[in-house]
Amino acid sequence: MPIVLREEPTVLLTERTWQLTTHAGQIAFPGGKVESEDADAVAAALRETREEIGLESRWIDVVGVLPDYLTGSAFVVTPVVGLVSLGFELKLNSEEVADTFEVPLAYLMNPAHHLRQCLDWQGTRREWLAMPYQDQASTRYIWGVTAALLRNFYRLMAA
Known about the structure:
Blueprint: E1 2-4, E2 10-16, E3 27-28, H1 41-53, E4 60-65, E5 69-70, E6 76-77, E7 80-84, E8 97-104, H2 105-108, E9 115-121, E10 124-134, E11 139-143, H3 144-158
Parallel strand pairs: 1-7
Antiparallel strand pairs: 1-2, 2-3, 2-8, 4-7, 5-6, 9-10, 10-11
């Protein structure tokens, strides 16, 4: 969960490419699976961030990890929160990341933007959290696990 230390802090998010076999086109944090060479979830998050968007760890001050989050598909996600200093440059891995964008942290921490949405699909009611955000390019539909992690971050910050 990279928080960019601008005058108004922002959260840096990625849009995954449409060619990926899982979660194609979705909005996500940089990150991924812990590999055998990673010491822990923090090392994996820093490595994946570098690999996906070219953001080097020297620009990131890791301030902690949030509680693990179990997804509906049984993945365990360990959110790593990092403060990103200004001056960084991104170099996107075009096989994984179609775009990056930033959303003001204040927008994401406003519960008025935390929308519960639902759909009846194949006889089953599906519910999820969404945080649509309109930027200069388009409406960015932040939902699912990414929105849930942001909501958990909001809850921790509001406590």
